[in-house]
Amino acid sequence: MLGHALTYLLVVPSAGPRDALLASTGHSYWWAAVFAGAILGIGSAALVAVRQFVGGVRGEATTIGPEGIGPLAVRLAILQSAIFVLQEILERLDVHAPVATMLTGRLLLVGVVVQSLVALALAFVLFFVARAAAAVGRALRRPAVLRPAATLRPAFVAAPRRIAFAVAGGIRAPPR
């Protein structure tokens, strides 16, 4: 939703013409979508944090972005750009506006670029939220219970007589 709003602010900076464009292209639902997007975004970030925290408590490595922020940002950019294009098409179909109006005024190009930049920022946020949650989980993890050292005793401690006789029988020394 942020990328969508930024796109229209960049493409049509003046409020009057921007409002007219939004009204003619099916954006009457906008505030409900912003509210739903905010709730879903916060919920998704919370789920990532909880999942990583539980993984940290279990001693698992973090699972979000183990290969780094770049691949995560690319996946998010592709997803967000596809959603942006689909959303623009559906908005125009809803109000019977020509779909080709997406191609005028750099809307599509600016939209994909903005969605990619928002995806990069989101990848950074999710990556660091995940890492922090996993670190907190690992810090709160209970230490493993250590077993007594008796099970790790060397053989000569367990049977000193046998070893002493074996060693003494092989020593050649003058009689006493």
Distance N terminus to C terminus?
97 Å
Q: Could you give the count of β-strands?
A: 0
How many domains? 1
Low-confidence stretches: none
SSE pattern = HHHHHHH
Mean pLDDT: 82
Basic shape: elongated
Q: From the alpha-carbon coordinates, what is the Rg to the nearest angstrom? A: 32 Å
Largest sheet: none
SSE class: mainly alpha
State the helicity in percent bands. Answer: 55-70%
Strand content bin: under 5%
Q: In DSSP terms, counting alpha (H) and pi (I) runs of 4 or more, how many helices?
A: 7
Structural write-up:
- The protein is mainly alpha-helical and 176 residues long.
- The chain has one domain.
- Helices cover 69% and strands 0% of the residues.
- The chain contains seven helices and no strands.
- It has helices spanning 2-11, 15-24, 30-57, 69-94, 107-139, 155-158, 160-169.
- α1 (2-11) packs antiparallel against α5, α3 (30-57) packs parallel to α5 and α4 packs across α5.
- The radius of gyration is 32 Å and the shape is elongated.
- The termini are far apart.
- The relative contact order is 0.14.
- The model has no long low-confidence stretch (mean pLDDT 82).
Label this structure with key terms.
176 residues; 0% strand; mainly alpha
Blueprint of the fold:
Elements (H helix, E strand, L loop, with lengths): L1 H10 L3 H10 L5 H28 L11 H26 L12 H33 L15 H4 L1 H10 L7
Question: Short description, anyone?
Answer:
The chain is mainly alpha-helical and 176 residues long.
